[in-house]
Amino acid sequence: MKIEYWSDFSCPFCYIGITRMKRVLAELGIDHVEIVMKAFQLEPYRTESQRLNTVTLFMNKYRMPEKIAKEQIDKIHQAGKAEGLNIHYENPIFSSTMDAHRLVKMAQEKYSQTIANDLVEKFYKAYFTDNLDLSDKAFLSETAKSTGITDSDIQAVLTTMDYRNVVYIEQSQAQNRGINLVPHFIIDRQVELSGALSDEKIKEVLAKFIQ
Question: Rounded to two decimals, what is the model's pTM?
Answer without folding.
Answer: 0.96
